[in-house]
Amino acid sequence: MSEHIDNTFIQHINQNLGVAHKVSRIYFQDADHRKDVLQEMMYQLWRSYPHFDGHSKFSTWMYSVCLNTALTYKRKNKKQKTESLSLVHDQIPESSSTNKEEAINFLFDAISMLSPLNKAIMLLYLDDLSYDEIADITGLTKSNVSVKLVRIKRELEQLLKEKI
To answer: DSSP letters of 85-126?
Structure first.
């Protein structure tokens, strides 16, 4: 890659780094797995960057690459045991969390219990992507995204009620 492309790639990544962190947090509770998948995401983004054609926003393309990488990584590491919701909460230090941080942790923990596709849809929705963008990334139709979001919100509401 040329130096210009290298700099452009680095700028795009730095502006959208939160995308990779959000995806890894939703799909992996273990810090070591999150670090590993983040490295894999960066590698896959670098590898596929020459194919980024600019027809979508960089963040939309990055979500697609990161979600696919996370799902592939998860399939390859099926041995990883899913932690229970209570175990995850036991690991959160109570003294350092504010009410807002605690609410965010509850939400992320609840989202992590959804199916892989539903996790992706909710993550994209929470990042204010349009239904069209979510449909492009997930391969669903716009109307299917709408229906799924209604169902996912109900499921999350139930999960959060059970926890509280």
So the answer is: HHHHHHTS-STT--HHHHHHHHHHHHHHTS-HHHHHHHHHHH
Cβ-based neighbour number of residue 93 at 10 Å: 6
CATH architecture of 1-81: Orthogonal Bundle (1.10)
Give yes or no for a contact between 40 and 24, defined as CB atoms under 8 angstroms apart: no
Question: Which tokens belong to 78?
Answer: 């099926």
Tokens standing for residue 84: 């229970």
Pick 82-164's CATH classification: 1.10.10.10, 1.10.8.190, 1.20.140.10, 3.30.710.10. 1.10.10.10
Residue keyed to tokens 């070591």: 32
CB atoms within 10 A of CB 61: 23
- Among residues 71, 153, 76, the alpha carbon closest in space to that of 117 is found at 71
Report CA 163 to chain centroid distance, whole Å: 22
Mean of pLDDT over the chain: 83
Q: Encoding tokens for residue 94?
A: 């109570």
| pLDDT tens-digit series, residues 73-129 | 988 876 444 443 434 444 444 444 457 777 777 888 888 889 999 999 998 998 888
Per the CB < 8 A criterion, the answer to whether 93 and 101 are in contact is no
